[in-house]
Amino acid sequence: MQHDNIQAILTVVQQIPKGQVATYGQIARIAGIPKNARQVGSVLKSHPDAKLVPWHRVVNAQGQISTRDNSNSQYQQRELLEQENIMFNDSGRVDLQRFQWRL
DNA sequence: CTCGTGACGGTAT
DNA sequence: TATACCGCCACGA
Predict the structure, then answer these.
(1) A61 touches strand B (CB under 7 A)
(2) A101 Cβ contacts chain B strand, under 7 Å
(3) What is the pTM of this model?
(4) How far apart (Å, rounded) are the C-alpha atoms in residues A34 and A13?
(5) What is the mean pLDDT of chain A?
(6) Which of A10, A12, A47, A84 is the one with CA 20 to 30 A from A31?
């Protein structure tokens, strides 16, 4: 059921250590829905409280902050990450080799 | 039930 | 390196 997916996704995201990032696809795989990375973003969108769910620690497979329709949450995301000492290169991407969460 | 829409990702060009 | 497509799939109109 989809409700379980939401729980699984949230649980996994909460595991991401501070100072590290994970990709949508990575979260999807660990959560057991390898073919639906899209839902990860969808779920995070409905959980704006970074204290409860560190949504800002999720970036796309290229290490970039995914563009979203409106709002400044994308700029806010970068701030939150920089506050955790995560750095961005000139092309606005985080070095996954260095900051991606590994099990 | 059908259709359009994504905070996606892999491949081809 | 940068675009362009295409496969996927939950959701809501």
Answers:
(1) yes
(2) no
(3) 0.94
(4) 15
(5) 95
(6) A84
